[in-house]
Write a structure and sequence with these properties.
Strand order of the largest sheet: 5-6-2-7
Number of domains: 2
Number of strands: 7
Mean pLDDT: 82
Order of helices and strands: EHEEEHEEHHEHH
Shape: elongated
Largest sheet: 4 strands, antiparallel
Distance between the termini: 79 Å
Helix content: 25-40%
Strand content: 15-25%
Length: 223
């Protein structure tokens, strides 16, 4: 075969789900033309938040951290989009609030994440595999060079972090508990966990409870 007859190699860029990017526009609509975003600053900020998150998870005693990460995605509260609508646009822009519960819920699926729920403040609890962190961090840092379609997936996300205690437990109920009274409690596990993983979490919880009981019985004060 002569050099002229050989097929030239082509480079395909995969998204976080290891899928070839589709040529058609997702959802059948136009790609949002977000404006007034410094993509370099945004990408660096998100990558740094993922770096902090990764260390916090590694330092945690979570028995399923090697297989699952349940984290918080904080939204950019408001975005500006280019618009030619003279009745709605101000200086060629329209503004919209981020809504992870409705309009912007699909951004997580497009990034390869599972949306679990949305808190009252608009933050989203999402699930990812641990290996996704490196992929997401690399993509975030490359945002200035990416196309409009890929950027639109990241526009609504401000940063990632640990899920705060108030989203894990009912603080009002916690304040009513007494150290001297037995209390019934319900613990809900994420449906993405396997039975074996749930068993390991139950054992970890029981171990913590027994340790606290022993410390209480002996009046241990941590000194």
């Amino acid at each position: 075969m002569s050099p002229d007859e050989r097929t030239n190699p082509r480079t395909f860029y995969l998204n976080e789900q290891h899928e070839l990017a589709r040529a058609e526009k997702e959802g059948g609509g136009r790609i949002p033309q977000y404006v007034d975003i410094n993509w370099a600053t945004k990408g660096t900020g998100i990558a740094r938040s993922i770096g902090r998150l990764k260390k916090q998870i590694q330092d945690s005693s979570d028995p399923v951290k090697e297989n699952h990460c349940f984290v918080l995605a904080a939204p950019v509260q408001q975005l500006a989009k280019a618009s030619k609508d003279k009745t709605k646009a101000i200086d060629g822009k329209v503004f919209e609030n981020t809504d992870f519960a409705e309009k912007h819920s699909r951004v997580f699926h497009r990034l390869g994440l599972d949306l679990i729920n949305v808190a009252d403040d608009g933050s989203a609890v999402v699930h990812m595999k641990p290996e996704m962190m490196e992929q997401l961090s690399n993509t975030a840092q490359a945002l200035p060079e990416l196309g409009a379609k890929e950027k639109s997936r990241w526009a609504t996300i401000g940063k990632f972090g640990m899920v705060p205690p108030e989203l894990r437990i009912d603080s009002d109920w916690l304040d009513t508990l007494s150290a001297k009274r037995v209390t019934d409690a319900v613990i809900e596990f994420q449906p993405l966990l396997t039975r074996a993983e749930i068993d390991s979490l139950v054992r970890a919880i029981v171990s913590i409870l027994f340790r606290n009981l022993r410390e209480a019985d002996f009046g241990w004060d941590g000194c």
